[in-house]
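Lecture notes, continued. The same structure-token format from the folding unit now serves as the input rather than the output. Read the line below as a description of shape only.
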């Protein structure tokens, strides 16, 4: 017999607004604004199924024997993407992952971190394996989960970085675009609100090669 085929899979969630790393504070020269903080929690249940509870003897109700046991393993991974949701870097050799939570025996994964660089972030829920299926009667990779996230935004608009021809070229090339459409690029979205318009030209000129 050949080896069983292990299922593999993940579901992605793109945060469709750019997150900002730390940067100079325009109202307090010499000080820095904090980075945006991204917090993500993933939770699921383990499987445990009993026979029906029996009330045949009213004075002695019985919980039936265990019919199924299982613990599936999910992980959380965070990536940077381009405007169309494509992961930046090599997602297959592990080098593109920005952060991950990968415990092996829990039913929760949790991350909270200040983003290390400006960008569009993607949350990946990855199925890893099924464990403890001692009756070998549970399907793999079908566990339901809940995933929740929040961003604690640092003050906006306050991009306030030196800008120049790279940003101006990006704004002109991507003018009228937004995240999820062709042409959008982070450099041209100078105020990092997810769309490229006149506000970005204004921001670029105001920060021109400071
Ligand atoms: Ca895990
Ligand atoms: Ca299962
Ligand atoms: Ca913009």
């Amino acid at each position: 017999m050949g080896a069983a085929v292990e299922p593999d899979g993940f579901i992605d969630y793109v945060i469709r607004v750019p997150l900002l790393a730390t940067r100079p504070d325009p109202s307090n020269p010499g000080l820095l604004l904090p980075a945006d903080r991204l917090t993500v929690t993933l939770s699921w249940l383990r499987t445990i199924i009993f026979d029906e509870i029996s009330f045949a003897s009213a004075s002695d109700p019985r919980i039936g024997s265990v019919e199924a046991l299982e613990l599936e393993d999910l992980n959380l991974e965070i990536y940077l993407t381009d405007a169309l949701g494509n992961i930046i870097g090599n997602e297959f050799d592990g080098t593109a992952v920005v952060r991950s939570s990968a415990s092996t025996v829990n039913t929760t994964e949790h991350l909270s971190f200040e983003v290390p660089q400006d960008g569009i972030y993607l949350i990946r829920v990855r199925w890893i394996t099924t464990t403890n299926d001692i009756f070998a009667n549970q399907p793999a990779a079908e566990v339901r989960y809940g995933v929740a996230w929040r961003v604690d935004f640092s003050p906006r608009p306050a991009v306030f970085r030196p800008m120049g021809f790279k940003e101006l070229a990006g704004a002109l090339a991507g003018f009228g675009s937004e995240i999820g459409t062709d042409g959008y690029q982070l450099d041209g979205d100078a105020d990092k609100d997810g769309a490229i318009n006149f506000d970005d030209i204004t921001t670029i000129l105001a920060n021109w090669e400071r």
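Point for the exam: Residues 47, 70, 72, 130, 138-140, 142-143 surround calcium ion (ligand 2) (CB under 6 Å).
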